[in-house]
């Protein structure tokens, strides 16, 4: 009887370990797909804005304000976070795709213009890595706790069975 329980315990822990590995793989796949979709979505928004010149604001609101589409530019400020005023009240079109903008100086015309930043700075990455480290630490810890709990419950069940046979 004890041999049969050991075999069952072995397969139960093996199944739990396989489930945890599958869950980790699924999580990694979801993270990569989400990052790919997010990056592609931002790039498509930038491209659609660059195709419609009247939707991008700059210091000069005329067609020369979009000099960054036709001229070489020098980036003055890269990926600056838009203020709440620009996002909500002013509704600046250079802030809508990502919430960040580049301030550029067009070399030929000398105009200072704003363009959407293609990538937001990685302010989310440190918190994501912290989240991942916490999960990696908690994974084996929760596994060990659950294995100990199952062993304790099995021990209690075996003692009850043996006590019922003794009485």
Automatic annotation (TrEMBL):
- Kindly provide the name given to this protein in its UniProt entry: Protein JTB
Which InterPro entries does the entry link to?
Answer: JTB (IPR008657)
Carries keyword rRNA-binding? no
The GO cellular component terms are: centrosome; cytoplasm; membrane; midbody; spindle
* TM region positions: 16-33, 126-145
Tell me the keywords, alphabetical order: Membrane, Transmembrane, Transmembrane helix
User: In this entry, which stretches build a coiled coil?
Assistant: none
What organism is recorded for this protein? Angiostrongylus costaricensis
Question: Please, which domain of life does this record's source organism belong to?
Answer: Eukaryota
- What GO biological process terms does the UniProt entry carry, in alphabetical order? mitotic cytokinesis
């Amino acid at each position: 009887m004890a041999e049969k329980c050991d075999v069952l315990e072995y397969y139960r822990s093996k199944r739990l370990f396989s489930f945890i590995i599958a869950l980790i793989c699924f999580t990694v796949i979801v993270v990569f797909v989400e990052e790919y979709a997010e990056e592609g979505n931002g790039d498509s928004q930038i491209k659609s804005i660059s195709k419609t010149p009247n939707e991008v604001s700059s210091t000069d609101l005329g067609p020369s304000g979009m000099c960054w589409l036709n001229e070489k530019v020098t980036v003055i400020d890269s990926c600056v976070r838009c203020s709440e005023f620009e996002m909500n009240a002013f509704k600046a079109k250079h802030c809508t795709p990502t919430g960040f903008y580049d301030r550029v100086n067009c070399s030929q015309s000398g105009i200072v213009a704003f363009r959407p930043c293609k990538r937001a700075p990685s302010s989310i990455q440190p918190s994501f890595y912290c989240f991942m480290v916490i999960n990696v630490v908690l994974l084996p810890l929760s596994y060990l706790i659950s294995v100990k709990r199952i062993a304790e419950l099995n021990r209690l069940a075996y003692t009850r069975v043996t006590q019922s046979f003794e009485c």
